[in-house]
TrEMBL record:
Species for this entry: Leptospira yanagawae serovar Saopaulo str. Sao Paulo = ATCC 700523
Keyword DNA-binding tagged: no
Keywords from the UniProt entry: Membrane, Transmembrane, Transmembrane helix
Protein name per Swiss-Prot or TrEMBL: NAD(P)-binding Rossmann-like domain protein
Pfam family of the protein (one): NAD_binding_8
Gene3D superfamilies found in the cross-reference section: FAD/NAD(P)-binding domain (3.50.50.60)
Transmembrane feature ranges: 6-24
Record flagged with keyword Isomerase: no
InterPro entries: CrtISO-like (IPR045892), FAD/NAD-bd_sf (IPR036188)
């Protein structure tokens, strides 16, 4: 394996792979290093006991015209094995079944039916839809946000539209504030509904979530939802295949242990380098490169002038001393970061395929009490698609279950660890039995569960933190972590940098990081 590359990408999450493809299409020799044995990060899948389970993310949106996934497929001419689903989500709350209709008018009527509120509720959702649409549009235009200097402000000004002011204003107030203005804050069921929906997408609750970011999260069920045939890992597999067609490479079992910035003493040290700015610029005496050391015995040291980190910022700053500013910022965002408890269940069902055909695949179940050991008040459940014959075999369906865990750093493999796992598993299985008539405990074929400790082992994420940084940190949107580090040749992607969590967001961030890089070089 060659040691010298033009670009090295750390981590094969979808943000990192999007950046890798973008560089590779521009003629760069790109190497992607992955700690695990399969790509995808928090949007991956794995095989166990003959069943394919999702490791994290289970929902997929963002293929509408101009949205990030649409851009990705068109720009790199890739086709994902996806199937559209008719029903976005069902929420089970206090014995009520709430349908998260994709159609905006139908959903508004459903919210009125369940929660009331009259014209005020209608207005709330009209604001949500308007701000969400504008936010996606704005995120696509402001490639240099958050601004770091006057040049960035000028680039933003060139893309400015008057409606952007509204998005900015709504980023300064919370969802709960808007509820109060509309006198919609006294219905406890409504408040609980909003809190649990926002935790899925914004990692925080209504009183702590900026309305602009919350609007995009609350309305994602109103986008066309898809499932990936064979599991979420197939998204990454498609991108890696395309990367290799562009001349790039992907290596597994490459846990990075150290990142060092080094100056060149002569050109010979980096013989395979190509131009890094698209305009014939070559490395010369006094320029620098990144040396990446991994724990792999066979291929442990790689060098490149450009580095892309898809690692969470808390992990990255522990691997290098070259980013003191980012280290300070990462330390300021250590409190209130969530972990996750996930389960995979293979279960036999007696219902035939025609019965499942129009069923909803995604469910949020509100629990009577919060789960113990820092667990959440709800669980999110995704069922395998009946037409996905890789994950749905004969009469066996696969369920992917997840819930939030506060203070993931407190989870350790101590003497109480097995009991804590079993306690949460038991409560979740009981909730599934109460919610789904077809779910019979005696029909379970296989189960597994994962705690923050497991997530730490799988992905290497510090303390097993997943989901990114809660939006409560960003009432000042200029405080977001940029896709650019303090070093111009180290770019950042993933769910801890702008534009944030979710597959469409991290893909957009990966594409923007590379666009920013080339725009700065031209400037």
């Amino acid at each position: 394996m060659e040691k010298e590359w033009d670009v090295i990408v750390l981590g094969s999450g979808l943000g990192g792979l999007s950046a890798a493809l973008s560089f590779a299409k521009k003629g760069k020799r790109v190497l992607v290093l992955e700690k695990g044995i399969s790509p995808g990060g928090s949007a991956s899948s794995f095989l166990k006991k003959g069943f394919v389970f999702e490791s994290g993310a289970t929902t997929l949106v963002g293929f509408e015209k101009g949205y990030p996934m649409d851009r990705l497929t068109k720009e790199f001419e890739v086709q994902f094995p996806i199937l559209p689903i008719k029903r976005s989500m069902i929420v089970h709350l206090n014995g009520k079944t709430i349908e998260r209709y994709k159609d905006r008018e139908l959903w508004t009527r459903e919210a009125l039916r369940v929660f009331g509120g009259g014209i005020r509720m209608v207005f709330f959702w009209k604001i949500c839809f308007f701000i969400a649409d504008k936010l996606w549009d704005l995120s696509g235009r402001y490639k240099f946000f958050p601004f770091r200097n006057l040049r960035d402000v000028w680039q933003g000004f060139k893309n400015f539209r008057p409606s952007d002011i509204l998005v900015f204003c709504f980023s300064l107030v919370s969802v709960r504030f808007v509820q109060k203005i509309l006198f919609l804050h006294r219905n406890e069921e409504w408040n609980r509904f909003l809190d649990e929906q926002l935790l899925i997408t914004n990692q925080t609750i209504a009183k702590e979530s900026p309305f602009a970011m919350a609007a995009a999260g609350l309305t994602y069920p109103n986008l066309q939802n898809y499932i990936v045939v064979g599991g979420m890992v197939e998204l990454s597999n498609v991108l890696i295949t395309r990367l290799r067609e562009f001349g790039g490479e992907f290596l597994t079992k490459q846990e990075v242990s150290k990142i060092t910035k080094k100056d060149h003493t002569n050109k010979v040290e980096f013989t395979n380098s190509q131009s890094i700015d698209g305009n014939g610029y070559q490395l010369s005496v006094g320029s620098s490169h990144w040396e990446v050391t991994s724990k792999n015995r066979d291929n442990s040291v790689f060098i490149a002038p450009i580095l892309v980190s898809n690692l969470p910022i808390w992990n990255l700053v522990e691997l290098t001393d070259a980013l003191p500013q980012l280290q300070t910022k990462a330390k300021s965002m250590e409190v209130g970061i969530w972990g996750a408890f996930t389960m995979g269940i293979a279960i036999e069902v007696e219902m035939d395929q025609s019965t499942w055909k129009d069923g909803c695949l995604h469910h949020q179940i509100h629990l009577e009490q919060a789960l113990p050991y820092g667990g959440g008040h709800s669980v999110f459940v995704s069922l395998s698609h009946p037409e996905d014959l890789i994950r749905t075999k004969n009469r066996t369906r696969i369920l992917s279950i997840s819930t939030h865990i506060a203070n993931p750093e407190t989870w350790k493999r101590d003497t109480s660890y097995p009991k804590r796992k079993k306690d949460i598993e038991s409560i979740i299985i009981s909730a599934l039995e109460k919610t789904f008539p077809w779910f019979l405990r005696e029909k379970i074929v296989f189960t597994h569960s994962a705690t923050p400790v497991t997530w730490r082992t799988w992905t290497g994420r510090k303390w097993g933190r997943v989901g990114g940084i809660p939006s409560s940190y960003f009432f000042n949107p200029f405080r977001m972590v940029s896709n650019r580090s303090e070093d111009p040749n180290l770019l950042l992607t993933g769910d801890t940098v702008y534009p944030g969590q979710g597959i469409p967001a991290v893909v957009l961030g990966g594409l923007h990081a590379v666009e920013q890089f080339y725009m700065r070089k031209r400037g």
